[in-house]
Amino acid sequence: MKRKRTREVPLGSLIVGGEHPIWVEAMGRTHPGEWRRCLEEMEKAVSSGCEIFRVAVFDEKAVEGLKIIKSQKREIPLVADIHFDLSFAFSAIEAGVDAVRINPGTAKNKNVVKSLINLARERNVVLRLGANTGSLPSYLRGEERSNALFESVGEYVELARAQGMENLILSAKSTEVEETIEVYRRLSETFSYPLHIGLTEAGEGIQGIVKSAVAIGILLFEGIGDTLRVSLTSRSPVLETEIAWKILESLGIRSKDITLISCPTCARRRGDVVSFVQRFRQKMAGLKVREGVAIKVAIMGCEVNGPGEAKEADFGLALSKNGKAVLFARGSVLEVVPQEEGVEKLLTMVKEALSEEERE
Amino acid sequence: MKRKRTREVPLGSLIVGGEHPIWVEAMGRTHPGEWRRCLEEMEKAVSSGCEIFRVAVFDEKAVEGLKIIKSQKREIPLVADIHFDLSFAFSAIEAGVDAVRINPGTAKNKNVVKSLINLARERNVVLRLGANTGSLPSYLRGEERSNALFESVGEYVELARAQGMENLILSAKSTEVEETIEVYRRLSETFSYPLHIGLTEAGEGIQGIVKSAVAIGILLFEGIGDTLRVSLTSRSPVLETEIAWKILESLGIRSKDITLISCPTCARRRGDVVSFVQRFRQKMAGLKVREGVAIKVAIMGCEVNGPGEAKEADFGLALSKNGKAVLFARGSVLEVVPQEEGVEKLLTMVKEALSEEERE
Fold first, then answer.
1. ipTM over 0.90 threshold
2. How many Å is the Cα radius of gyration of chain A?
3. Residue A66 CB-half CA count within 13 A
4. Residue B157: closest CA among B128, B177, B181, B135
5. Is the separation of the CB atoms in B214 and A250 below 8 Å?
6. Chain B partners of A205 at a C-beta cutoff of 8 Å?
7. B60, B135, B171, B266: best to mutate for the A interface, most A CBs within 10 A
8. How many helices and strands in chain A, by DSSP H and E?
9. Paired strand residues for B337
10. Could you tell me which chain B residue has the CA closest to the CA of A54?
């Protein structure tokens, strides 16, 4: 898993691409004109790990809201999502956004696009060129979809380059995993601009989570992606932010949570693993884990894989017979204790380790 | 995404490998000695899509239960999971199981393993050789883990081959995604036996689901895997079965549910997409979709990607202004209707399509 090297593009307070972190983006559900609610939503998303916030901008009220939002929350890069009427892209730049996202399928007037590119270049605003299977340009419909996605983005990249604009981020999302992988592989081979990755309209609930994890996981594993968004049907940007982090954590790319290794349980289990794991998770839920700390905890049900995994983890509990459990820390057995006590001691050790990390 | 061709291995009523479906395996939580409860659990897992059922066997009572379970549920391949005391592998074969899974890290006595191989070969029982990072043989601990997993499986493959036993299925699961991919790539390059894939001890809830989807998704996308299991900490094998199917569906490999394309919603939404999607899902939840039917439904919030995705789907609803929505079927606009009515009509069309499929 070696990340493909992209060009560095400054986006507000962040730099996207190169060896900079793969940033988590989320999109607001609130109209930016309702700036108080929009700021609240943004605050919640940021607390859950959102690092780039995108909002839909399609009327004057939204532009007015952008000014206030940007003045109150300078540190989070703000992206205006523009379709059809590009005049709002110009006014969003005037309002102070860090990037505008336009879609080759909905931004049709090339002369206006050229003027927009010029303004963005002058103001040092990033242009995200983002295509989508649901809005391919009409002249490309009927073509094989991943090809159409690639072509439509490529055409706008050429427009930007012709104007000397290099602060670009590209995306081309399909609803299908295989098409998404195909088009991103081509974008990555062809261009050096950072790529914003995701699967579009992944749906709701478990289906959306699994489909997004598979698509984004494959791309990240191939080294593709500089920012990412998980597009889930839900009322807030918090869930999509959390899932984005879980995907990054699953590959060990970034982490801001404890990694919990626990067995599925079977007839061999020596105690109630499910409730011990749930209790542990509930009691740890409030605690902030500083990024990169990466503490691994194992809670295991029997002697088959229990001692092995508990030893490999930073802290581990392997249930054993007669209501006992073996407590491990950093690879060594600490003591044999009653199971309930073992869970409490595990919690204490992890909390202590976290507060030590905090002090450092 | 081209599946790597493996040898065909008969497993009870199924054939594993070759061009046969990638089967979904799940593991029981109940002691097989409690055969009534075990059968109930198996029934639930099978209803949710489990095709191979594995149970832990580690005492005489379990062996007795196996006989009854097997006699009452012949059609589902039954796998006995054996560690430490291999005598139960012999008696599980006598009890009629279709496969025994042994672990190179816990099945240490090579002479006993050789006799077991002979018995399995004579009885036409599959031997699954499954290694695990939590139970690596002691002489391999300290080695790089994916290498140790590979070596330990390889050694037992040689033992089996030396006895003329070829009905093997191999697995080598790590708790880490990258190690898991690495060892399965090697197994796939080295051996032609079918591979049972999965990430071990993935944990609980969303973390476990995302981590499993990423690992298994990457392997399947690389063409690796003939059976799969999702190892989630939970009280029943139903959730792991459902997630296994969602992973297969996300890649279009197999399907037994409607694919729902729906947007995450943003300020542009023309109505309450979230509740329309949830209502649709709830009303479809009871309906069985025959495998391979693969109906795609889109419920979209606005005119950016709405009409495009609704047109691409088999049936689609694109919300539009003034409380209206555009209803699509098989690529064409049917009518413009009030949104609530649109959802109901969408449901009716999908139900009709499903019952037509059922009649065919």
1. yes
2. 23
3. 29
4. B128
5. yes
6. 281
7. B266
8. 11, 15
9. B325
10. B266
Residues facing A169 on adjacent strands: A128
CB-based contact A27 B264, cutoff 8 Å: yes
- Residue B202: which residues within 8 A CB-CB, separation 6 or more? B175, B208, B209, B211, B212, B215, B230, B231, B232, B233
**Residue A359 CB neighbours (<10 A):** 6
pLDDT in tens, chain A (360 residues): 899 999 999 999 999 999 999 999 999 999 999 999 999 999 999 999 999 999 999 999 999 999 999 999 999 999 999 999 999 999 999 999 999 999 999 999 999 999 999 999 999 999 999 999 999 998 987 899 999 999 999 999 999 999 999 999 999 999 999 999 999 999 999 999 999 999 999 999 999 999 999 999 999 999 999 999 999 999 999 999 999 999 999 999 999 999 999 999 999 999 999 999 999 999 998 788 888 888 999 999 999 999 999 999 999 999 999 999 999 999 999 999 999 999 999 999 999 999 888 787
At A61 the three-state DSSP class reads: helix
How far CA A193 is from CA of A8, A9, A100, A168, A188, in Å, comes to: 8, 8, 16, 6, 8
Give chain A's domains with CATH numbers: 9-250 (3.20.20.20), 259-359 (3.30.413.10)
Search chain A and give the residue with CA nearest B217. Answer: A214
Question: Across the strands, what pairs with B227?
Answer: B23, B196
DSSP label of B232? B
Q: What are phi and psi of B23, to 5 degrees?
A: -80, 150
Q: How far apart are CA A189 and CA B176, in angstroms?
A: 28
Q: Contact, B206 vs B181, CB < 8 A?
A: no
What distance in Å separates the CA atoms of residue B221 and residue B247, rounded to the nearest whole number?
Answer: 11
Nearest chain A residue (CA) to B58: A268
Least Cα separation, residue B340 to chain A (angstroms): 18
CB A22 within 8 A of CB A195: no
Sign of CA dihedral B71, B75, B76, B77: positive
Q: Comparing C-alpha atoms, which of B66, B205, B154 is closest to residue A277?
A: B205
Chain A residues touching B28 at Cβ < 8 A: 266-267
pTM score > 0.90 for this model?
yes
Contact check, Cβ <8 Å, B267/A32: yes
**What is the Cα–Cα distance from A339 to A275, expressed in whole angstroms?**
11
Biggest CA–CA distance in chain A, Å, is 77
| Pairing mode of beta strands B126-132, A52-56 | unpaired
Q: Give the length of chain B.
A: 360
CB within 8 Å: A234 and B28? no
Neighbours of B64 (CB within 10 A): 15
| CA A107 – CA A118 distance, rounded (Å) | 15
